[in-house]
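Whiteboard transcription, Tuesday session. T.W. wrote the structure tokens on the left side:
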């Protein structure tokens, strides 16, 4: 059955790119509501922004949603991943500015907050998007693909010149709370060589060594180093789950990303929905629902490192 959070929970921090203070509150919602963002600082006009793939504005460094009135919410991927990974289908996410707080750079604080409140079952069945035929998108830098699978399965490959990251590959079946146990605490990362360029472009103004893993060659500059030996590729998978959650329903399919990012994953969803024979909407059976991310997950599964 569909779910929502039992009671509201708030998070306060700064936006990774804007550097502005931000407070985000996840509130319960009724069945069939889906996930919507609401800009509480917008007094006049349309303050509601749907968490949907077709309102994403292309950005290489984060995922930004923009409604028809031009009201935006950016860096939504970590909270979207947390909602999907905790099995929350319906919620109103209120935010008092244009960017979600980065917190520690991972989804773990959002996961901890959601699971501290608990998830409530609603009187409506879960519907999912079943991938029937492979679809893919390619650029000069990488590619992404969705193909049929029994649950939500993910493969990701990255390759960076910095030895602290290098080549990393990971395969995961995201059923049975695997996101919470293995991915949610992995933080956003960047190369030290890129920091000045990002800030010159007005990005990463809120980034610190406390909310991002920064590498320089073979050195991890962030105190304490990596939470996992392959934390960067795990974070890429976290981002991909958050971006895929903008499909509007859980996906039963195999996602593969090769040097993929936010823009490629969004392009992949657009390609999927532009190919009617490649998918169908289904009402989940109990066995199918049990294979979705977040099914049956508990607070004790959050990694101690986070």
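and on the right, the sequence the group agreed on:
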């Amino acid at each position: 059955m569909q779910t929502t959070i039992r009671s509201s929970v708030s998070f306060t921090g700064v936006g990774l790119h804007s550097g502005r203070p931000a407070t985000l509150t996840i509130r319960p919602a009724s069945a069939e509501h889906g996930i919507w963002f609401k800009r509480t600082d917008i007094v006049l006009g349309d303050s509601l922004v749907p968490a949907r793939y077709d309102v994403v504005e292309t950005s290489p460094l984060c995922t930004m949603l923009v409604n028809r009135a031009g009201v935006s919410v950016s860096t939504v991927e970590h909270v979207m991943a947390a909602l999907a990974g905790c099995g929350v289908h319906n919620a109103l996410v209120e935010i008092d500015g244009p960017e979600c707080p980065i917190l520690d750079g991972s989804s773990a604080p959002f996961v901890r907050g959601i699971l501290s409140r608990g998830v409530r079952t609603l009187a409506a069945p879960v519907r999912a998007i079943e991938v029937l035929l492979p679809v893919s998108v390619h650029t000069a830098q990488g590619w992404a693909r969705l193909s049929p699978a029994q649950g939500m399965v993910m493969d990701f490959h990255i390759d960076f010149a910095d030895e602290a990251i290098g080549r990393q590959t990971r395969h995961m079946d995201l059923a049975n709370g695997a996101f919470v146990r293995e991915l949610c605490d992995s933080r956003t990362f960047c190369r030290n060589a890129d920091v000045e360029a990002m800030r010159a472009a007005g990005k990463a103004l809120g980034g610190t060594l406390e909310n991002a893993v920064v590498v320089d060659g073979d050195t991890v500059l962030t105190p304490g180093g990596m939470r996992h030996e392959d934390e960067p590729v795990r974070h890429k998978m976290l981002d991909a789950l958050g971006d895929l959650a903008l499909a509007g329903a859980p996906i039963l399919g195999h996602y593969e990303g090769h040097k993929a990012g936010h823009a490629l994953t969004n392009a992949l969803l657009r390609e999927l929905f532009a190919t009617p024979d490649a998918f169908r909407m289904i009402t989940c059976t109990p066995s199918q629902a049990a294979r979705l991310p977040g099914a049956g997950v508990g607070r004790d599964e959050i990694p101690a490192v986070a």
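Someone added at the bottom: The longest helix spans residues 231-244.
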